[in-house]
Amino acid sequence: MRKRKFEELFFRVLMVFATILVSGSFFLIVGTIFFKGLPYMNWDMITKTPGGGFYIGKEGGILNAIIGSFYVAGGATILGLIISIPVAIFINLYMDGKRFLSNTIRMAFDVLFGIPSIVYGAFGFLIMVYFGIRASLLGGIIAVTLLVIPILVRTLDEVIRTVPFELRDATLSLGATRWETAKVVLRQIRPGIFTAILLSFGRAIGDVASVLFTAGFSDNIPTSLHEPAATLPLAIFFQLGSPVEEVQGRGYASALILTIIVLIITVLADILIKKFSKHKI
Amino acid sequence: MNFRLLKDKILSKLMLVFTLASVSLLLVIGIGLYYKSVPIIQRLGWTELITTSVWKPLKGLFGFFPFIMGTLWVTAIAIIIALPLCLLTALYIVEYAPARIKRILIPFVNLLSGIPPVIFGVWGVLFIIPLIQAHIAPHFVEFSTGYSVLAGGIVLAVMIFPLIVSIISEVLRTIPQELKDASLALGATKWETIKKVILRKALPGIVAATVLAISRAFGETIAVLMVCGNNAVVPHSVFDTGYPLPALIANNYGEMLSIPSYDSALMFAALLLFIIILLFNIISRVILARLERRLAS
Fold first, then answer.
1. Given this model, what pLDDT does residue B297 score?
2. CA distance, residue B133 to nearest chain A CA (Å)
3. How many angstroms away from the CA of A195 is the closest CA of chain B?
4. Within an 8 Å CB–CB cutoff, is residue B214 touching chain A?
5. How many distinct structural domains can be found in chain B?
6. CA distances in angstroms from B85 to A8, A17, B24, B199, B224, listed in the order given
7. Which residues in chain A have their CB less than 8 angstroms from residue B192's CB?
8. Which of B1, B2, B92 to mutate to test the interface with A (most CBs of A within 10 A)?
9. Measured CA angle at A86 (ends A84, A90), to 5 deg
């Protein structure tokens, strides 16, 4: 009897310990980034593009990379939405009675979601070579769009499935076509669409393996789709590789900026999801 | 009236095209990568590419064995660290934690999953590397810079925490309360119930989560690239440097167009990753879908 009680206690302590370690790792990471990055933070970092000699420790900032990342992530998310919303509607509203087929399609997107970004990057690079596009904002957007489509479709699909069947049935029985029903459903899931946008944007802005081959890098803010664009993760990676201490420090500060952006996006998405589940009928 | 029906028809066809196009992406990626790696496969053959370890692009020698081993070492270390920790965490969250603590814990797991790979890499360089160099390695080997497959494994382990915890918790939640009640009513302690009923019932789900985590770890690029040391040598201990496949692709794309067959070789590396991850993903998704169906019926 004693032994059983002891075993219970032992594993309970082990579980609490594991839980603290797993959820504590978040603080460890964010803490490390804050601690190392904060001393190098200043306004120049987020308001200036790299000046001459930036990479040997002279003045400037990473505005080019921040703007570039927003362009790439924003462009990819918009393009991804244009493709994903019809797909999610099609799976849910146009495939009645074809359960097997729609589930197979869902699984295909689950698998696509698991494909690593380096493969999307390599494939995006192949597309660019095929069409003769050079490393540019456009190339980056194409590769990242491929990366975010599965995220968007999965999230939208999940959200649409929370809309009660009665609502669709009521709309359809009033004589609406499936497309008109889709419009009603879309209105219902509006907050869900914002969640999907945030999730996709958050993933896109932090990903580096997909833009490595495709977006290029530039010290200037891109003014057209055909110019190369710097991205924040890539800027961090490059600065960290520098032997100059000042530049490395700016790499930490850049990491801090990216962390803050991504945390804001994740928290917003979390709040939206909670709100959404509260208001659903 | 006709117009409305026509609109519905046209739009439905359009959506069908979008759906088919994005699903076929899976095929197109595979075919595209294969097509690009055909030259190197024809020249050297699959077995030679995979089993030899000489990597001299300038001489046209491409042996992927060290990179495959690098990937395997890093992934294995990550799973060995992450799986027990995440299993215990998921058990605690689902079976023990009071609702109040659950509400605090789950958002942190979510936040962790939102952190970009490059940040994990920076953290690895700033925290894990010095830790290994100064505190862990000296107990086992004479000298280590810290850049090692162990560092890669630890960073990857933390990266896959959220994935494993969320899938296993979901699986644990599907286990019927009646089963647990029956076990508890027979006088088993909570841990005995977990050990003999819950874990047994959740085993397929745990396997699926592990397979999915392995495939995630396989493809992770930038974080691993930053902490592994990137030496094209087969690692023999956890303190050796390694050079996983994704890091190889990311590190060399710059020069790949200037050396013959190099681009083909790198696309072959991407193809290899793609095939392995595709298989692992399909396996785990089929297991999970089956679990879900069992729950629904």
1. 61
2. 17
3. 13
4. no
5. 1
6. 17, 9, 37, 15, 21
7. 4, 7-8
8. B92
9. 115
CB contact under 8 A, A266 and B110: yes
B12, B111, B220 ranked by CB distance to A178: nearest: B12
Tokens of A45: 């970092």
Distance between CA A189 and CA A273 in Å, rounded?
Answer: 11
Interface contact B126-A29, CB threshold 8 A: no
CATH at residue B71: 1.10.3720.10
The 10s digit of each residue's pLDDT in A28-60 is 999 999 999 898 888 877 777 777 666 666 777
The single-letter DSSP state of residue B196 is I
User: Tokens for A268?
Assistant: 């917003």
- Tell me the nearest-neighbour CA distance from A52 into chain B, angstroms: 24
Rounded to a whole number of angstroms, the distance between the first and last alpha carbons of chain B is 41
- Residue of chain B whose alpha carbon sits nearest to that of A15: B88
Q: What is the largest CA-CA distance in chain B?
A: 83
Share of chain B above pLDDT 70, in %: 97
Q: Which of A179, A173, A111, A118 is nearest to A143 (CA)?
A: A118
Task: For B85-101, write each residue's pLDDT tens digit.
Answer: 999 999 999 988 888 88
- Domain assignment present for residue B21? The answer is no
Residues in chain A within 8 Å Cβ distance of B119: 29, 33, 206, 236, 255, 258-259, 262
- Calculate how close chain B gets to A167, using CA atoms only, in Å: 19
- Compute CA distances A244 → A35, B33, B70, B164, whole Å: 19, 38, 30, 38
Which residue in the set A19, A86, A127 is minimally distant from B18, CB to CB?
A86
Residue identified by tokens 């993933």 is: A203
Asked whether residue B23 is domain-assigned, the answer is no
CA B274, A139, B244, B62 torsion-angle sign: positive
Query: Do strands B55-56 and B61-62 pair parallel, antiparallel, or not at all (unpaired)?
Result: antiparallel
In chain A, residues with a C-beta closer than 8 Å to the C-beta of B14 are: 86
Please give the helix or strand (H or E) that residue B210 lies within, else none. helix B199-219
User: Burial letters for A123-138: b for 16+ Cβ neighbours within 10 Å, e otherwise?
Assistant: bbbbbbeeeebebbbb
Gap between the Cα atoms of B215 and B19, Å rounded: 25
A32 φψ region: left (φ > 0), alpha (ψ -120 to 50), beta (else): alpha
- In this predicted structure, what is the pLDDT of residue B176? 87
- Asked if residue B277 is part of any domain, the answer here is yes
Residue B30 domain flag = no
Containing domain of residue B284, as a range? 47-296
Judge contact between B116 and A233, C-beta under 8 A: yes
> In Å, how far is B138's CA from the nearest CA of chain A?
23
pTM over 0.80: yes
- As for the ipTM of the complex, it is 0.90
> Is B270's CB within 8 Å of A259's CB?
no
